Amino acid sequence: MTISELLIDIRKRLLQAFGDSTLADNEAVLIIEQSLGITKKRIYLDSSISIDTNDVDHIYTIVERRLRGEPLQYIFGKAYFYDREFSVNRDVLIPRPDTETLVDTVINTENKSPAMFIDIGTGSGILAAVLTAHHPDWTAVAIDISFKALQTASRNLFGDDDKSINNNIYLICGDILGAIRPGKRFDFIVSNPPYISSPQMKTLDRSVADYEPSIALYGGEDGLDYYRMISARAKMYLKDTGRIYLEIGFDQGVSVPNILRGDGWKDVAVVKDLAGRDRVAVATN
């Protein structure tokens, strides 16, 4: 079978399963690219090259997994965020482009140097990794209740050999802020907490509902449980005028700020993502 024949067949199968021609085109190329370790350019320039039978079988195994709904990021064990590659698995959420708005907001707002911050619900560690990469003199305390998630974060932050790439990041297993002693020593707090409500959980795409960890998605009946807990506790950890940065759902641009104002936070504001949707809530201690 040639690359061209394989590409056409995979596109057809993906289109029949998902009904999205753009997704089918992009993922068909990606499956071949990742499976064979070749570039997208070569796929098109050398489309008449025959592929070994074992490679074809391997590729169709991946296609079948994808047709059952499994995200390619989990199949290949990696995802890209902020132009960096991160290890991912079913213990952590797949990074979304929406979260880049959270990173940009912090980078464009915080000018303290050095600075210490807390990353609540670090998951795969992407926020701590990107923020400390942009500001090497920043120190992160990254918290997650899932020990398996922290194992993934450790690989992303320190490498497989546990030799620290980032010696200014500390991983802690705990719920919200409970594992840290209160004290006004942090300059800011950042978090992408679970914020999917009960009704929304029932409408999630199967690639999310069946494969991504529900503990990192479900935010309570109305999706606001974690915002209430973080808002109520975070002031005890921040320096005077320290800030909090929270990713929010597109429909939470009023409810989350109201929670923050009710707990005495100042200068509460909402930042929109590139699509014009409410995406980040910012407030000052």
Q: Level of helix content?
A: 40-55%
Regarding quaternary structure, what we see is: single chain
The largest sheet has its strands arranged as 5-4-3-6-7-9-8
Distance between the termini: 63 Å
Give the number of DSSP strands.
9
Order of helices and strands: HHHHHEEHEHEHEEHHHEHEE
What would CATH call the homologous superfamily of the largest domain? Vaccinia Virus protein VP39
CATH architecture of the largest domain: 3-Layer(aba) Sandwich
The fraction of residues assigned to DSSP E strands is 15-25%
- Whole-number total of structural domains: 2
Say what the CATH topology of the largest domain is: Rossmann fold
Shape: elongated
Low-confidence stretches: none
Give structural notes.
With 285 residues, the chain is α/β, with parallel strands linked by helices. It has helices at residues 3-18, 21-36, 40-45, 53-67, 72-76, 99-109, 126-134, 147-158, 198-201, 206-209, 225-234, 255-262, and strands spanning 78-81, 84-87, 115-120, 138-144, 169-173, 186-191, 238-247, 266-272, 278-284. The protein has a seven-stranded mixed β-sheet with strand order 5-4-3-6-7-9-8, sandwiched between helices. It has a two-stranded antiparallel ribbon with strand order 1-2. β3 (115-120), α7 (126-134) and β4 (138-144) form a beta-alpha-beta unit. The mean pLDDT is 94.
What structural keywords apply?
single chain, 285 residues, alpha/beta, Helicase, Ruva Protein, domain 3, Rossmann fold, 2 domains, two-stranded antiparallel ribbon, 9 strands, 41% helix
